[in-house]
Specification:
300 residues, 2 domains, 13 helices, 69% helix, flat
Length: 300
C-alpha cells in the first residue's frame, strides 16, 4: 500500500469521466427537448412545476410563478391575458388590418376551444371547482387535511399546464400569419417573469450539459448543475407527509434522485475530469499555462 486513495487510478478516472458525460447528456437532452417543445401545443413551462412546489421553500417558488399577481384561472381574467398578448403581438410585428382581423379570429376560436375543452369540460371543471374550494380555505387560513394539502398543488399544476397548452396554441397560430419580413423582427421580448425563467432554465440546461459533454469549464459546469439540481430538490423535497415524497411508483424519504445527482456533480467539481478527457486540457495548455504559468514545475 502506498497510501493512494485508489488502487486503480486509471479506472477511477475513466469512471469519473463517464459520470461527467452521463450527467452532461442528461442536462443537454432535457434542455433540447424543452426547447423543441416550444413550437408545439405541449410547450414546456416551469409554471406548473413552480406552482406545485411544496415544503419549507414553497412560498419562494410560488412567488416566482405568480409574477406578483394572484393565481387566477377565472375565465374572464384568462381571456384578458390572451387579448393583451394579441395586442402586444400586433404592435411588435406591425400587423396590417387583414392580419389583425385574422388574429382576432384566432382569439375567438381559442375562446371557444377554451370554453369547450377547459371551462365547461367535466373533468377540468371538476378540478377547477375543487381547486377553488381548497384555495379559498387556504387563503382563509382554515385547516386543510393532508389530502387537501396534497391535492391543491397537484390540481394547480394540472390547470396551469392546460392553460399553457392553450396559450401556446394561440402563439403558434399567430406566428403563422407573419410574413418573412415580419418574422425578421425577432420574437416578442418576454413580458412575464415566468417566460424569462423558462428561457433561463432551458438554455441553462443546454449550456451546462454541453460544457459537461465537451469537458469545457467542467468545474464551473458541475457547480452550475449542482445549483440547478438543488433548486429542483428544494422545490419538492421528499419530506414526510409531502407530495414530493411520492413520484409515480417511486417513494423517497429525504433522499431523491435529484439530491444524488447533485452530490455526484459536486464530487466531479473537485476533480480534473475535463483535463483527463475534454477541452479543459486544451484550455490549460493554450491559455492557462502561457498566461499564468499554472501547472509548471518549479525549478529545483
Amino acid at each position: 500500500m502506498n497510501g493512494s486513495i485508489s488502487c486503480c487510478p486509471g479506472v477511477t478516472k475513466f469512471l469519473l469521466v463517464v459520470l461527467r458525460l452521463a450527467i452532461g447528456w442528461h442536462f443537454l437532452y432535457e434542455g433540447l427537448h424543452k426547447l423543441e417543445s416550444q413550437g408545439t401545443p405541449q410547450a414546456w413551462s416551469a409554471e406548473g412545476y413552480l406552482r406545485g412546489a411544496t415544503g419549507p421553500f414553497a412560498d419562494f417558488f410560488h412567488k416566482l410563478a405568480d409574477d406578483k399577481a394572484p393565481i387566477d384561472f377565472d375565465q374572464h381574467a384568462l381571456l384578458q391575458r390572451w387579448r393583451d398578448y394579441v395586442e402586444r403581438f400586433g404592435q411588435h410585428f406591425q400587423l396590417d388590418d387583414t392580419q389583425r382581423k385574422a388574429a382576432q379570429d384566432e382569439l375567438d376560436a381559442l375562446r371557444r376551444k377554451a370554453e369547450d375543452e377547459f371551462f365547461h369540460e367535466p373533468q377540468f371543471r371538476g378540478i377547477l371547482e375543487q381547486w377553488e374550494q381548497d384555495r379559498q380555505k387556504q387563503q382563509a387560513k382554515q385547516f386543510l387535511s393532508s389530502a387537501e394539502a396534497a391535492r391543491l398543488p397537484a390540481n394547480e399544476k394540472v390547470l396551469s399546464e392546460r392553460v399553457a397548452e392553450l396559450t401556446q396554441r394561440l402563439k403558434k397560430q399567430l406566428e403563422a400569419l407573419l410574413s418573412d419580413e415580419q418574422q425578421s423582427r425577432g420574437p416578442i421580448s418576454p413580458a412575464k417573469r415566468i417566460d424569462r425563467i423558462n428561457l433561463a432554465v432551458m438554455w441553462g440546461l443546454v449550456a451546462i450539459g454541453g460544457c459537461l459533454m465537451l469537458g469545457l469549464f467542467s468545474r464551473l459546469a458541475c457547480l452550475g448543475a449542482a445549483g440547478m439540481l438543488a433548486l429542483f430538490y428544494l422545490s419538492m423535497p421528499p419530506l414526510p407527509g409531502l407530495p414530493g415524497a411520492v413520484e409515480g411508483n417511486a417513494h423517497y424519504l429525504y433522499v431523491s434522485k435529484n439530491l444524488i445527482e447533485m452530490i455526484a456533480a459536486l464530487a466531479l467539481a473537485t476533480t480534473g475530469s475535463g483535463r483527463w478527457a475534454g477541452l479543459d486540457a486544451l484550455v490549460r495548455a493554450c491559455i492557462t499555462r502561457p498566461l499564468f504559468g499554472a501547472g509548471r514545475k518549479k525549478a529545483a
